[in-house]
Design brief:
The structure holds two protein chains of two kinds. In chain A, the strands form three sheets. A six-stranded mixed sheet of chain A has the order 6-7-8-3-9-10, sandwiched between helices. A four-stranded antiparallel sheet of chain A has the order 2-1-4-5, covered by helices on one side. In chain A, 37% of the residues lie in helices and 31% in strands. Chain A is elongated, with a radius of gyration of 23 Å. Chain A starts with a strand and ends with a strand. By secondary structure, chain A is an alpha/beta fold. Chain B is an all-alpha fold. Chain B contains eleven helices and no strands. The relative contact order of chain B is 0.15. The chains are: A alpha/beta, B mainly alpha. Chains A and B meet through helix 2, strand 6 and helix 3 of A and helix 7 and helix 8 of B.
Chain lengths: 337, 236
């Protein structure tokens, strides 16, 4: 269990003080895959670095399994860091060392003998699917392969927590998917807690169980991914969750056409031909301007933009009709937002 | 003038001197250069490490006054012309070697002149290490000493070799200068025969040999630097 309590971090720069994090509190249960998402500059990287005290918080505390990380001595902290390892956007491998030696690196730091470290590293290379690359140097590998080596290295000391700092941001979509799949399977097998920092919705959607939305150094919203993504409450969450912002903005519409956003949450909602029913039962004709569905945590989510003609009454009727189903969220989109 | 320079008796005398004196001179130049470089690295490399890790925000920040002093001393030593430095360190040379004249004695001023230079070169190499790589090591629980010995130095080996090559060729040049205070080697021969006795042929021969030595050191150094660098693709 990771508890972040009232954490603040202020950087002093030449232009004055910058508050990167303001009174952040989070609880991350053991074995979870927890996403922290936000735009660049939201404070994500700072937040993840306070967990292993690469950044010392200005105020507040980080408590991991009852241990206050900020209260540890340097030596104790170094030992504790073997339990909370990290992978990075830029992989950060030792470029002058072979893959095998890169994975041995944290083990050797921990004082494990070379033959033992080698044995463990070879097993880990197998786990990440790179058994044939033991003798290769990082420069000879693709980005995805380098990240796999970095994951193997992070797992070498058998950590309880894996911090992923934009770990897939430098990778193409296919490679991203395979790396995320690897993290998910490691989470399933070892029960490791994975904390993913990202600016990509797709990353959170594909593997996270919980998500926190960070906006301007503040937690705007936190909860189960399905819940947050289907019923985003904060403005920051809505900005991130609805990928239709561009679509809505580019709609050319008549003065009397209202734009309605409909979000379906769960299989029950997506299984019904709802728009067709609405046309038949209520006589409301909807013009579908945008639609997408995705699977989050095994559940179907859909989002749609409808153009509805006929004035405010018709719009209200449509919203009333659609939201009879509790798994459906419907709201008017104001384009000047 | 020209035919005088290449007169048979002049050529014969030059050939004689080259045969009898040059082998020892080459040997002296090489061993003084290599020994001085080795000592300069032994002193300069740790100083270079301190310059990088000890600064504010470094891996192991040291007191600001210490860093300032170190920087001032290094800059100071680097600004003294070598010719004057040789004379200035006479007392130290006498203390260490027992005499201020001769080949072995010339090693002391060479080391004093070269180690601050080496420290700056090492500093440059170590600064090239990606800060993200150092952060990675910290995230895995590496101590400052482990970061120095297992990350910073190993990761900058190719660059350190390149810079060691620069150091050794520079020190070779300095060692030729030490002929003035009685240091042996090709420099002394060039001075004694060329400058004092107008035997230009001998001087030219000595200079050509110095050029060849620089070429050899540089070629070997570059080759080693490239060969050790694992960042270059398609190499095993």
């Amino acid at each position: 269990m990771i508890e972040i309590k009232n954490l603040s971090k202020t950087f002093r720069t030449a232009e004055g003080e910058v508050e990167a994090l303001k009174d952040v509190s989070l609880s991350i249960p053991d074995g979870d895959i927890f996403g922290i998402i936000g735009m660049s500059g939201a404070g994500k990287s700072t937040l993840v670095r306070t967990i292993n005290m690469l950044e010392r918080p200005t105020e507040g505390s980080v408590i991991i399994d009852g241990v206050d990380m900020g209260a540890l001595s340097e030596a104790e902290l170094r030992k504790k860091r073997r339990e909370i390892t990290m992978i990075f956007q830029g992989f950060n491998l030792l470029m002058q060392k072979t893959c095998l030696d890169n994975i041995c690196f944290p083990l050797r730091l921990a004082g494990i003998s070379a033959p033992q470290a080698r044995e463990r590293a070879l097993a880990l290379l197998e786990t990440v699917g790179l058994a044939d690359k033991a003798k290769a140097y990082p420069a000879q590998l693709s980005g995805g392969q380098q990240q796999r080596v970095a994951i193997a290295r992070a797992l070498a000391t058998d950590p309880k927590v894996l911090l992923c700092d934009e770990a897939t941001s430098a990778l193409d979509p296919t490679t991203t998917a395979s790396i995320l799949e690897l993290i998910r399977s490691i989470n399933e097998i070892t029960g490791i807690t994975a904390i993913l920092i990202t600016h990509q919705m797709s990353v959170v959607e594909s593997i996270c169980r919980h998500v926190a939305i960070l906006d301007g150094g503040v937690i705007a919203e936190v909860g189960e991914v399905g819940e947050v993504f289907s019923h985003p409450k904060s403005a920051a969450a809505r900005r991130l969750v609805f990928p239709d912002g561009d679509a809505a903005a580019s709609l050319t519409r008549d003065r009397d056409e209202h734009i309605l956003r409909v979000v379906f949450n769960g299989n029950q909602a997506t299984a019904t031909p709802l728009i067709a029913h609405m046309a038949v039962e209520k006589g409301i004709e909807a013009n579908i301007a945008y639609a997408s569905t995705k699977t989050i945590d095994g559940r179907e989510f859909g989002s749609m933009l409808l153009g509805i003609r006929g004035g405010d009454n018709v719009l209200r009727e449509a919203i009333g009709y659609l939201t009879r189903n509790p798994d459906i969220l419907a709201e008017e989109v104001h384009l000047d937002d | 003038m020209i035919d005088k320079l290449f007169a048979p008796e002049v050529l014969a005398e030059a050939g004689d001197i080259i045969r009898t004196q040059f082998p020892l001179a080459i040997w002296e130049t090489v061993y003084v250069t290599i020994l001085s470089t080795a000592f300069a690295i032994i002193i300069g490399l740790p100083l270079g490490v301190i310059l990088v890790v000890g600064e504010k925000g470094g891996v192991k920040p040291l007191p600001a006054w210490l860093m300032r002093t170190l920087n001032v001393v290094i800059n100071l030593l680097r600004s003294v012309p070598f010719l004057i430095l040789m004379v200035l360190v006479f007392p130290l040379t006498r203390l260490i070697v027992g005499t201020v004249v001769g080949t072995v004695a010339s090693i002391v001023p060479l080391v004093i002149a070269a180690f601050p230079f080496v420290a700056r070169l090492a500093e440059g190499s170590l600064r090239e290490v990606n800060p993200n790589t150092i952060e990675m090591a910290q995230s895995l629980g590496a101590s400052p000493m482990q970061i120095i010995t297992r990350v910073m130095i190993p990761e900058s080996v190719p660059s350190l070799i390149s810079n060691a090559t620069i150091a050794i060729t520079t020190i070779l040049g300095y060692s030729a200068m030490s002929g003035i205070i009685g240091g042996g080697g090709l420099g002394k021969i060039a001075m004694n025969y060329g400058y004092y006795r107008y035997k230009y042929l001998i001087m030219v021969a000595a200079v050509v040999l110095l050029i060849v030595l620089v070429q050899v050191f540089q070629t070997v150094g570059t080759h080693l630097a490239v060969r050790t660098d694992k960042r270059l693709k398609n190499k095993t």
